[in-house]
Design goal:
The strands form two sheets. The chain has a six-stranded antiparallel β-sheet, with no helix packed on it. Strands 1, 4, 6, 7 and 10 form a five-stranded antiparallel β-sheet that branches. It is mainly beta. The longest helix has 20 residues. The two termini are 23 Å apart. The chain has two domains: 98 residues, Lipoxygenase-1, CATH 2.60.60; 26 residues. It is built from one helix and eleven strands; from the N terminus they run ββββββββαβββ.
Length: 142
């Protein structure tokens, strides 16, 4: 019997949100379901997730990998690197009174506290995604 030279797999994303939609791209194309042709043991596939917003706490993305319509556990093959989650704050010089200036300073401090909460980092073996970034699936022998 001949050995298989490749395996056909399917990655399916389940996207939840209330007000701000999340987009997923693979090889420049938007998709919530991707057919993969795995040709090598060291093959890597990357998916970019964008659109997460602090104003929508209902945002979440989960994913599954299927072979012949059977779900496979792939957490050990995945890593997620958060990107583009820092808030960008631009200041414009505007004449204002001491009270207004203090109120603005207080609001900026609150934003900066939240900004520290979403410091970009990487995680292995992730199952749910709640931030902008790149999901990598790395196929290997294990």
């Amino acid at each position: 019997m001949a050995k298989l030279k490749s395996v056909k797999l399917q990655v399916k994303f389940n996207i939840s949100y209330n007000t701000h939609p999340v987009t997923i791209t693979h090889n420049g194309l938007s998709a919530d379901q991707v057919d993969l042709q795995i040709d090598r043991l060291d093959q890597k596939e990357t998916f970019e997730l964008q659109g997460f917003s602090p104003e929508d706490p209902g945002q979440k993305v989960t994913y599954t990998l299927e072979y012949n319509q059977q779900e496979l556990d792939i957490r050990h093959l995945t890593s997620f690197k958060m990107q583009k989650n820092k808030l960008k704050i631009r200041f414009k010089q505007v004449p204002m009174s001491g009270t207004a200036r203090q109120k603005m300073t207080d609001n900026i401090q609150k934003l900066m506290q939240y900004n520290e909460f979403i410091e970009n980092h990487s995680t292995e073996n992730c199952n749910g995604i709640f931030f902008n970034g790149k999901l990598k699936i790395e196929f290997n022998k294990a």
